[in-house]
Amino acid sequence: MPRIIITLGDPAGIGPEVIDLALASAAIPHGFEIEVLGDRSAGSPGKPDARSAAAALAALDEAVRQLKNGSADAVVTGPVSKEGLQTLGFPFPGQTEYFADAFGVTDYGMLLTGATLSVGLATIHEPLAKVPTLLTPKLIERIGLLTAGFLQRRGIAQPRIAVAGLNPHAGENGAFGDEETRIIQPAIDLLNQSNAGVFSGPAVPDAIFREAALGRYDAVLAMYHDQGLIPLKLLDFDSAVNVTLGLPKPRTSPDHGTAFAIAGKNIASPSSMIAAIRLACELA
User: Fold this and answer.
1) Average of pLDDT values for 5-20?
2) pLDDT at 171
3) How far is CA 47 from the centre of its chain?
4) Fewer C-beta neighbours within 10 Å, C or N terminus of the chain?
């Protein structure tokens, strides 16, 4: 029986309540052993502190230990406060980078998937001003291959992936920037030589997500965090799941934060947590 572990997240946030609601629902698949990791008593709803942040980190460390020793087959991570973790010396921008470091993985990425859209991210938690300097054909090719691999694992043998441009109008033939011709198009050419799927673009960013939402693409490869997550959260906020690509075992997470302002009020929706658990079970 595959074993799925769920980290509680920051116990002062909505993690504990959405996990309880998810596990009590009829939407969780049968045939899996599920365990929740974390100390619920380490935080008061809506009142994060060093103790609640430490509990969140301890749950993450325990999850890594179990994934590495083979006692767990996949992990679902509850929402944490990045600010709270960093006050403890946590050196990572988020949980994605934490898990990649824990497993010594350099070829990794972030993908968000929901009922309407799947979006791979060429860059993740980076200042917008740095994005043009970080993009390279090799980076885009690497994330494109990871995105295609995820879709193939879910049964799409020849995925159709649109690669978004960086600039308005995809650069307008160089009028608004040359990253499309200098960086993104060479990456698409490399990807289409890989037989991993059909990659098209550079696509006009303000239009391509509509095309994908209509079913004309299986995923969009976005150049930066908000380019991909704004349309995804607009359309799929309640069903979106964050997936870390490239890890030896699946890691998923609901696509929302700790929501300290509503923690303990029993108004948080468990929909994204349910979707994250279901996807972890599927991948496991």
Assistant:
1) 98
2) 82
3) 26
4) N
User: Given the DSSP bridges, would you call strands 118-121 and 109-113 parallel, antiparallel or unpaired?
Assistant: antiparallel
How confident is the model over 159-189, as pLDDT tens digits?
A: 999 999 999 999 888 888 999 999 999 999 9
Q: Average pLDDT over the chain, rounded to whole?
A: 96
pLDDT band at residue 74 under the 50/70/90 scheme:
very high
Q: Which two tokens stand for residue 20?
A: 């309880």
Q: And the tokens for 225?
A: 């965090």
Peptide bond into 231 cis (omega under 30): no
Buried b vs exposed e over 157-171: b needs ≥16 C-beta within 10 Å? Answer: eebbbbbbbbbeebb
Are 35 and 284 within 8 A, CB to CB?
no
- List, in order, residues 6 or more apart from 148 with CB less than 8 Å away: 159, 161, 191, 194, 196, 197
Q: How many CA atoms lie within 13 A of 230 on its CB side?
A: 11
Q: How many helices (H) and strands (E) does the chain have?
A: 11, 10
Tokens found for residue 223: 């150049």
Q: pLDDT tens digit string along 123-170?
A: 998 999 999 999 999 999 999 999 999 999 999 999 999 999 999 999
Q: At what angle do helices 225-236 and 205-213 cross, to 10 degrees?
A: 40
Give the C-alpha separation, 135 to 123, whole Å: 8
Contact 187, 163 (CB under 8 A): yes
pTM recorded for the entire structure: 0.93
Cα–Cα distance for residue pair 92/115, rounded to 1 Å: 29
Which residue bears the tokens 């920037």?
177
Task: Assign 146 to helix, strand or coil.
Answer: helix
Q: What tokens does 262 get?
A: 């509503």
